[in-house]
Write a structure and sequence with these properties.
Helices cover 34% and strands 24% of the residues. It contains 15 helices and 13 strands. Strands 1, 2, 3, 4, 5, 6, 7, 8, 9, 10, 11, 12 and 13 form a 13-stranded mixed beta sheet that branches. The radius of gyration is 23 Å and the shape is elongated. The termini are close together.
């Protein structure tokens, strides 16, 4: 059950950077003047340096564009508040995750910026973007952009929007158009209920989109009666859990630690890091210890999630030995299992399954959770009768005369489907073996 945040697919091919750095800098340069690091975090001090739009469609909305981690941190409090209020927002869209990604996964030559939309000092939208490439047309700089994504740890980074303001994605596109940028934005693995896909259903919108199915995430609807839920498991799986539970009870000092708060974040992370490396990923050099940048991302994000009270550690331990662990984040009434690990030396206890069983049982008793999201689609999930949420990749751009209609028609054609399939096959062939996740049916937790 040692798995990372992934969809059980190979890492996608990387894009070559644009060949004209000066063009990229001009394309991404914000129109408003740079704000020099105010200490206030509610955004009000920043807003004074940015003018409201004169576009009737975005009247009263103030757009702030930042390009440094220091400026990004100035919006952290408002960003976290917006995420808590969003019914569809996930930890992947949070300040802790995005800031850790930008800090650890990009090189100095990479160009990124983040857009914030405010109305009367209240944040209504956030959109982090990374420049993939750009080229010049007579009137515009065409910029191919993407939201942060990595198959091993970061996905489903949609535009974060306050309830009822799903149109903020269009506000951001209009802002870029006024800066003489023609944006083409790719967003990976977002659900049907996401703000962007919700807004794209609006027939009056000014965006064109091409979307295609990209996978799924499985989740458990926390039941009220755990024993009734467990009774629906297959006979063999119930026997496996019972047998694993008996073997665990025989271990000296065996205990289940749920939402551990007694140890520091650093101590819990060190325990998780060790047990994650003790599985097949340690053997294949694809654990966090084998990828320093990813290790630093998870550690930074954990520290920042913990300051908000969102970080959750679950452990199965035998004395001083950790045999299974969850790196999880709780947002509202949903628990996201972002990373899971177990020690294969204790495989007779089925530690991965046993830990999840105890987490579900604890959630049933406490009544504090509605959903446990596994943020992946794995074969072993079938044992748990999980529900499934389909995910989509989407490419959006302004609706231009002729071009928009042609793109919409092409995006739904069989030719486009064949091109996408070919690119995916090429990406799988290029992926490094050490980064290719183990096949979903090749292990049982």
């Amino acid at each position: 059950m040692t798995s990372s945040y992934n969809r059980m697919e190979s890492k996608p091919p990387t894009y070559a950077p644009a060949t004209n750095p000066a063009l990229m800098r001009r394309a991404l340069a914000p129109r408003s003047r740079t704000v020099e690091g105010p200490s206030r975090t509610d955004g009000s001090a920043l807003l004074r340096s940015h003018q409201a739009s004169d576009d009737p469609a975005t009247a009263g909305i103030q757009i702030i564009q930042v390009r440094t981690l220091e400026e990004l941190a100035d919006h952290a409090d408002s960003w976290n508040k917006l995420l808590e209020e969003s019914p569809t927002g996930s930890p992947m869209q949070s300040y802790p995750q995005i800031s850790a990604y930008l800090e650890t996964q990009l090189t100095p030559s990479d160009n990124w910026f983040c857009l914030f939309a405010y109305i009367q000092g209240e944040l209504i939208g956030v959109l982090p973007l990374i420049l993939v490439r750009s080229f010049r047309l007579p009137w515009y700089s065409v910029c191919i952009l993407k939201t942060p994504y990595d198959v091993l740890h970061t996905g489903s980074v949609d535009c974060l929007a306050s309830p009822g303001r799903e149109d903020v994605i269009e506000v951001f596109v209009r802002h870029l158009m006024r800066s003489r940028i023609l944006p083409v934005i790719r967003i990976r693995e977002i659900a049907e209920s996401s703000p962007t896909l919700t807004h794209l259903k609006n027939p009056c919108g000014a965006l064109v989109a091409v979307r295609f199915h990209s996978g799924a995430e499985n989740f458990i609807d926390v039941p009220q009666d755990f024993e009734a839920y467990r009774a629906d498991f297959s006979t063999n799986f119930r026997r496996q859990l019972k047998r694993g539970g008996k073997k665990f009870d025989e271990l000296p000092g065996g205990q289940f630690r749920c939402r551990d708060l007694l140890r520091t974040v650093s101590e819990n992370f060190d325990r998780f890091e060790r047990v994650e490396d003790a599985g097949w990923k340690g053997v294949s050099d694809s654990s966090l210890r084998a990828m320093p940048a990813n290790l630093r991302l998870f550690r930074l994000a954990a520290e920042r999630f913990n300051r908000l009270g969102w970080m959750e550690w679950n452990f199965l331990e035998a004395g001083d030995q950790t045999i299974a662990a969850h790196y999880a984040v709780r947002k509202g009434r949903v628990l996201y299992l972002l990373k899971i690990g177990y020690d294969e030396a204790f495989s007779g206890c089925s530690p991965g399954n046993l830990l999840l069983e105890k987490v579900v049982e604890s959630a049933c008793k406490s009544g504090a959770l509605d959903e446990i999201n596994c943020v992946a689609d794995c074969a072993w999930h079938r044992n748990w009768n999980m529900k499934q949420r389909l995910l989509h990749d989407v490419i959006i751009l302004p609706c231009l005369p002729l071009v928009g209609k042609w793109l919409a028609r092409f995006g739904t054609s069989s030719t486009c489907g064949r091109i996408i399939a070919k690119l995916r096959r090429r990406g799988s062939a290029l992926a490094s073996p050490s980064l290719t996740p183990k096949p979903a049916n090749s292990y049982v937790p």
